[in-house]
Amino acid sequence: MAIIANTKTSSFLVLICFLTFSLHATRTEACHRTDRKALLDFKSKITRDSFRLLETWNQSTDCCTKWEGIACDSNGRVVNLSRNGISTDEENPFDITMDGIISPSLGKLKYLRVLDLRFLKDLEGTIPSELGKLYHLTSLLLDINRLNGSIPASFQNLRKLNRLLLGQNLLSGTVPTNIFQHMSSLTELDLALNKLSGPIPSSIDKLVSLKRLDLSLNKFSGSIPYTIGFLKNLNFLDMSKNQISGIIPTSTGELSKLTLLHLNQNKLSGSVPSFSKLVVLESCVLSDNKLTGRIPASISKSTPLRFLQLDNNMLSGKLPESLGNLTNLVRLSAKNNLLTGKIPASLSNLINLQSLDLSRNRLSGPVPSELAKLNIMLDTLDLSFNPLRLVTVPSWISKMNLEALHLAGTGLVELPEWLSSTSLFTLDVSSNRLTGKLPAWIAKMRNLHTLNVSNNGFHSDIPIELKNLQRGLGVLDLHRNNFTGGLSTIFAVSGRFRYTFIDLSHNMFVGRIDNNIGNLESMTVLETLGLSNNRLGGGIPKSLGKLIFLKTLKLDKNEFTGTIPAELSSITFITSIVLSHNKLTGSIPSGVINLLDLVEFDVSYNKLTGKIPPHKKPFPASSFVGNSGLCDSPLPPCKTA
What we know:
- The chain is mostly beta strands.
- The protein has a domain at 30-221: Leucine-rich repeat, LRR (right-handed beta-alpha superhelix) (Alpha-Beta Horseshoe), CATH 3.80.10.
- The chain is 7% helix and 24% strand.
- Its main location: membrane.
């Protein structure tokens, strides 16, 4: 009996072991040899793996169970290859990169469903046409790399694709006409930020499941296919920054699920289509085209709209009263069009509006005082270059909490003192009819960073109170006035802000530039210094060479004497040096004329002498004429004794 019992026990244990082994084998079938070989070939083409994404990939382990980024089906066939460069640590993100090419051998992973190599940044070479053999592929994610060449025509075989992301690469050429013919399951297509050209493929109308289409920042030309309106599921459409021409198809107005429509910076013409069915649209950017006609009143149907930008077109007629129904608007910009009539008082209903830019149109005054109701959210108001005939800044603006007020070219004759108690960061009242002294109360504007009073009739010295500006200044534009006196007050302004831009040209300033200008705290990040057309004299300070962020230096048409400081060669990134029409002597420093980023160099009409130093930039002869002692290229050769 004991023997029989023991035998039964042994048989039971054998059965348990067999079943356990069978279940284990079914659950973790070893990686198929074809797939293993293909993956190892891919790894061999990677020249640098900075984050060791492929470290676990080796011959001695099972690719289905031990290799990171690989998943297999129950038969040991690879169905997912995901080795992307997306950092999962939001608090301490790290830069994941991978150098090399995509091996054509990946085309042998015939059961692959997901190929994710996005965000690796440095994958280069062409996209292998062999990937078109991956008939089970649902996601092909290769965006944010350095892949070049064309999009393979073989992709038309990928009939199960849901997502095709190839954006932010260096892809070029035309997109194959029939590539989308059988991609009815595709929901996301991203080809943005490449160098793709030619027409938008006509087969795009087959993408009936498409929700997101991004073709922006390429060189696509031709027209937008009328059949774009067939893509009823589309909620994101971005074709901005291309060379697309023709009209915006009326069928675009049928895309009732659209939340984003960006067609800016193209060559589109004709009218803006009806918005009556775009009832969930949140962002519409049509700026920088050649659009004509009126802004459709039907735009009021897009009540969720938050961003509406129609800048730089040829739109005409009046601003629709119905704009006031778009109470979710955050930004409304229609600058540089041909709009006429008055600004609708209904805009005061836009309680969430933060920026209103209607500059450079033909709008007439008065500006509705109802806009004062926008005092909580509105921070930027730009009505510049409209024939508003304001005379003075409307008093209701004093009730607002604006950060930026732009009223250039609006007919201003005077500035009210209540501006001194505002919180304005930017004040632009240029190109008006302002005269007299620059108001000393400007020094009381506690947040002022940018002041532009250029192209007016101000005269006399700069008020000494300006030195007391609480935070200093970042941008100061006084050009084309009749200011007199020295520059010491301007350069002495100090505070939290540092100057990045100073333009004092076309005035009557006199005296010398402070020799210590390059050491002044207010000038440490200066990028532009324009002092042209004044009556300044003395030497050009050597300390200018310490302004290492300077890009533009214009001192022409003054009375400067002495030599060109060799120290200017320390301004590594400068692009423009204009010193013409002065009384400078000596030679041209070789280090200055050979600054690597220098595009404009003009020392004409001085008293310079000697041989023009050899230089690589093709500066014209006109940059050196009027110096009788200068010679050599591009002027005539120096005379030999």
